Amino acid sequence: MSKTTRYSGDEMWKNNVEKIQNSELFTLTYGSVVSQLCRDFNNNYQEVNQQLDRMGYNIGMRLIEEFLAKTGAQRCQTFKETAEMISKVGFKIFLNIQPTVTNWTQDGKTFSLVLNENPLADFVELPMGPDNRICRDLWYSQVLCGVLRGALQMVQLDVDVWFVKDVLRGDDQTELRLRLNKFLKDEVPAGED
Amino acid sequence: MSNDNIIYPSVHSFSNLSLSDSSRTGFGYNPYKGPSSNAITPETSNILINKKTVSLTPTSFDSIYDRNILKKVPEISLSSFSFLFCEIVNWTRNNSKGIQDLEQRLNTLGYQIGQRFLELVKTRERIKYSKREIKILEILQFIHGAFWKSIFGKTANELEKSQDIENEYMIIDDIPLVSKFISVPKDYGNLSCSAFTAGIIEGALDSACFPATVTAHSVPKEGLPLRTVFLIKFDESLYTRENLRFN
């Protein structure tokens, strides 16, 4: 087995993570933010998506540090290993879920994460308008894409992340897609030279 | 004045019915006729069949309303919440014009949560106690106790009443969850990110028909640098109501 098994997300969740007993505060807080953004941007959902993505990116950049500190994970050798690490350990210790990794492309650079449950979207229903624009345009959990992008960039992986399906829109499952663009070179961060 | 102008619901109209009356829609019970007034004739069944209807059949039994709210709520990592909240503060700060505006925005975000949480906590609780708070003191004890516990996992520390001002109360939390990892820079003066929590309380109180203004103030104490006082100022009209009801 690959060495991802050494870092058991379950065990870490049990012993090593400070928890709040109630995920509802988290869920409602996120919901409050999304609805505020919809009002701020005057229901321009594309902009809402972008803003959520930006916020996620900022979170991801900082979140990876805690991830590395808690898990002590070593560099993944392959992108496949990275995928396992994200779903089995990353999602587990931060959101207490384990999405399924599937739909690899032939070149091994793109895969899907299928979220069976989504703590961000508990108790959520998109309001039905006459034109159903919100169901077409808004990716409610877009913040996750930003988080993944930000976190992976900090470990020198340039990725694109986007949603292809969301149960909130009436799809059969919630599916995220990740594509590896390139490995970034180790560089001195801007502003530190 | 004759009695005819007074409308007694249903009873009066019943007394005006006679044997020969039949309803305009073809339906309706006429007590003079008895059960036969509701009998289905070819005419009425025709009306029934050709009525325009709105479908109320649930299309799926998996909607959010069908979920069991008494199920055990899953836990979530404190860091995830803190990261999210931190980013919220950051985003609000970029949009706001000053400290007061920033606090106001955080308050608004919390307000929506308070409205929803009150309903949730009450629905869950009602099955146990089937009672509703109607006195100021009772609602405060509820917020300080059960409500706080279901949101933050612990009850708040103290509940106090102002000695000088009649309508001011204080709920004190020694270690507020939301600002656990937030340190306020010096040039932000007395900004308290617990304005968010204050918003939650305000939303809950308003929805419970106890209109109030809630503000958060950071009041550190020896060994408790994050200690926060939530100042609750009730609307004057509440006291009129309280006097009418209980005196």
UniProtKB/TrEMBL annotation, chain A:
Q: Which organism is it from?
A: Pichia sorbitophila (strain ATCC MYA-4447 / BCRC 22081 / CBS 7064 / NBRC 10061 / NRRL Y-12695)
Do you know which SUPFAM superfamilies this protein is assigned to? Ligand-binding domain in the NO signalling and Golgi transport (SSF111126)
Asked if Transport is a keyword of the record, the answer is yes
Gene expressing this chain: Piso0_004307
Location in the cell reads:
Endoplasmic reticulum; Golgi apparatus, cis-Golgi network
The protein's matches in InterPro entries, at most eight in alphabetical order, are given as: Bet3, NO_sig/Golgi_transp_ligand-bd, TRAPP_component
Gene Ontology cellular component list? endoplasmic reticulum; Golgi apparatus; TRAPP complex
What does the sequence similarity comment in the record state about its family? Belongs to the TRAPP small subunits family. BET3 subfamily.
Where's it mainly located? endoplasmic reticulum
> Which GO BP terms sit in this record?
Golgi vesicle transport; macroautophagy
Entry keywords, A to Z: Endoplasmic reticulum, ER-Golgi transport, Golgi apparatus, Transport
Query: What is the protein named?
Result: Trafficking protein particle complex subunit BET3
Checking Pfam families in the record gives:
TRAPP
TrEMBL record, chain B:
GO biological process, alphabetically ordered: endoplasmic reticulum to Golgi vesicle-mediated transport
What InterPro entries would the database entry show?
A: NO_sig/Golgi_transp_ligand-bd (IPR024096), TRAPP-I_su5 (IPR016696), TRAPP_component (IPR007194)
Q: Name one Pfam family in it.
A: TRAPP
Keyword Disulfide bond belongs to the record? no
**Where, subcellularly, is it found?**
Endoplasmic reticulum; Golgi apparatus, cis-Golgi network
- Name the keywords, alphabetized: Endoplasmic reticulum, ER-Golgi transport, Golgi apparatus, Transport
- A cellular-component GO term for this protein: endoplasmic reticulum
Biological role? Plays a key role in the late stages of endoplasmic reticulum to Golgi traffic.
On assembly, the entry states: Part of the multisubunit TRAPP (transport protein particle) complex.
Spell out the family assignment given in the record's similarity comment: Belongs to the TRAPP small subunits family. BET3 subfamily.
Q: This protein is called what? A: Trafficking protein particle complex subunit
Recorded name of the encoding gene: Piso0_001053
